[in-house]
Amino acid sequence: MSNTQASKPAPSKGGGLAGMVVADSGISFVDGAEGILEYCGYDIRDLAAKSHFEEVAFLLWNGHLPTTQELESMKRQSRACRFLPPEVIAALRVLPRNAEPMAVMRTSVSMLAHYDPESEENTPIAHQHKACRLLGQISGVLAAFERIRRGEEPVKPRMDLDHAANFLWMLTGDDPDPLSAKALDQYLLLLAEHELNASTFSARVTASTESDLHSAITSAVGTLKGPLHGAAVQEAMVQFLEICTVANVEPWFRQVRAEGRRVMGMGHRVYKVRDPRAAPLMANLERMVEATGERQWFDIARTLETIAMREPYFRERNLSANVDFYSAPLLYSLGIPVDAFTCMFAMSRIVGWTAHVYEQQANNRLIRPVANFIGEHQVPWTPIEERG
Ligand code: CMC
What we know:
Layout: E1 28-31, E2 36-39, E3 42-43, H1 44-50, H2 53-62, H3 68-80, H4 86-94, H5 101-112, H6 124-149, H7 163-172, H8 178-191, H9 198-208, H10 213-224, H11 232-243, H12 249-259, H13 278-292, H14 296-310, H15 312-316, H16 323-333, H17 341-362
Antiparallel strand pairs: 1-2, 2-3
Helix pairs in contact: 2-8, 2-17, 3-6, 4-6, 5-6, 5-10, 6-7, 6-17, 7-8, 8-13, 8-16, 8-17, 9-10, 9-17, 10-17, 11-16, 13-16
């Protein structure tokens, strides 16, 4: 073997592209030190208090808040796209009932491309149509698969309901109660966009090859599926279920610390303070809890956060509640199955992904970084019989 170690560059420190700027973007702004998140310049806390998901989708796609006329036209267009092609429903029926919902989502997004009349067109107008269609279809896929795996028939979408309420309708077949619909709407708004998180970056990398929108979104869904990203919300709920009672929070936490395990729903690559989405999500959950009287998961989450924040280990590493910490009990309170939580994330983030694909393709340059090579050079080839 050659010995070229001396000429090698030093290995990169830390990796993970931490802190590296890889694109110009006007879609969202994150200040991790101050805990600020803005969509197109609007503070997320303002939007959560005053706006709603469909309006925010328009904002992220167009860069400005809609007029009444623009919003009505966008709603008409996106609501008309809620129906799934029958072939996709047929495919959902033959998938294994124990399939992971995010894997089903990944397959479905890819399959939807075959029934989209503009799937291979990369023009801005085709992109707009496809983004609108995917917004409606992704929620339909999740609701239909959930019902099919429970042995029930999918429920047809309704045109008179907003996005969140229509999803609850398709999931349950019952008129959604306004509190749940509002809570879900706010959840969708809060998770719709988050700068260059891993799945959005993935979508942009695929888009930068001038591939089609469905391919970019399929990449993003696959990336969101991982437990350090989108699936952390499921893991967070698994941990709350494992804790089970408020009295068990402290002993559970001590055990997790002793075993060196991570507390899911805490810590963030960018935020070094509490995630700005945690407070509105917590308030949202609290409203649900007050209405239903079912305090268990809210109280467990609050107690766990308080205990963790007292711990020097967490404070020294700036580990605070992230977006998943209160999303988990909120989605649970809404009756969403735990293994479908990450799909709820995708149902919201489809807006940010499609906005980023559009932005990437509007001013494209192939994303192709380089590696810091740490292997050997000029290794002499040896015949197979001489290899030990
Ligand atoms: N619990 C305990 N320790 C933690 C945690 C945690 N949740 N997160 C990070 N640490 C520790 C980690 O062990 C390391 O300690 P040391 O310096 O002693 O080795 C230090 O903090 C830095 O961790 P890191 O993994 O190098 O930090 P990162 O920026 O690469 O990771 C993270 C960020 C989100 C992957 C990580 O905080 C984590 O795994 N959190 C739990 C999973 C989670 O909630 N993910 C959702 C992220 S927000 C939504 C989304 O993006 O989808």
